[in-house]
Amino acid sequence: VVKLLLEKGADLSVASNDGWTPLNIASNNGHVEVVKVLVEKGANISVANNNGLTPLIAASVNGHAEVVKLLLEKGADVSITNNDGLTPLIVASANGHVEVIELLLGFPDINVNKPDRSGRTALFFASRFGQHQAVQVLLSKSGINPDTGDWTGSTPLFAAVANGHLEVVELLIAGGATVVKQDGVGRDLIWWAWRTGNPQIPQLLVQHAERVGSHMPHDPTPNHAISTPFDPKAAWCDACTLSIREGCGYFCSGCDNGGFGLCAECFDGGIRCREDSHVLVLR
Question: Where are the ANK repeats (predicted)?
Answer without folding.
Answer: 1-17, 18-50, 51-83, 84-105, 152-184
